[in-house]
Amino acid sequence: MQPFGLLDHRSHELVLGVPGSGKTHHARARLASARRVVFFDPTGHDYVDEGEQVSPADLDRELLSGTVVRLVVVPGDDVPADFAATVAACRASDGGVVLCADEVGDYAPHCADVLTRLHRNGHHDGVVSVLVSQCAIDIPKTCRRTATRVTSLLQTASADLDALETEYGPEFRERVARWRPGDPPAVWTLPTLRHHHRKEAPCRS
Ligand SMILES: Nc1ncnc2c1ncn2[C@@H]1O[C@H](COP(=O)(O)OP(=O)(O)OP(=O)(O)O)[C@@H](O)[C@H]1O
Ligand SMILES: [Mg+2]
Hints:
Rossmann fold; 36% helix; binds adenosine-5'-triphosphate; binds magnesium ion
């Protein structure tokens, strides 16, 4: 089992789509083979099957250093504070952790700095991420810009589609706008990651 499953040690992924389009289903499937995952679940019911429910204060290094970790953080009344505490605990761990944050639009306006730093630097602390949101524009712009992989089901609002086109190009926008239930998700992957893999090929000079 790879530490990050289908993700790698620098992944910061986004999962987007209108309500009911299948974001949570996709995020869970994508993380099924990751070894240490913390799910931040404001609904309190989307990830009940994934593992033990804990509060952010429970997330100490020992709990996060297990061989297989599947923890579900259900925030209390102050969702932004609990999200910030969850990110801080993951970053203070020994690493190898995927943080999956669902319903990001609920707390992103109060957590833009936390989310931005998570994308910029989280992987240096061994924390990679999956941010799940109904609307592309609810994801801070820097996070959209630094995403390594974007999976989108349907987006309909022109502001969201414009944001997708800006960062990921017109073809991705079109696939997202045309998406219908039963279609595979539209997926965009950071092109430089593919260049990077090529560079890692054995050097024969
Ligand atoms: N690819 C799929 N195959 C089978 N069932 C799916 C698939 N995608 C979604 N579903 C089902 O459709 C329903 C809605 O999916 P899901 O909860 O993942 O949507 P969502 O985009 O997260 O919605 P919300 O915005 O309300 O959180 C769920 O019952 C889920 O199990
Ligand atoms: Mg959902």
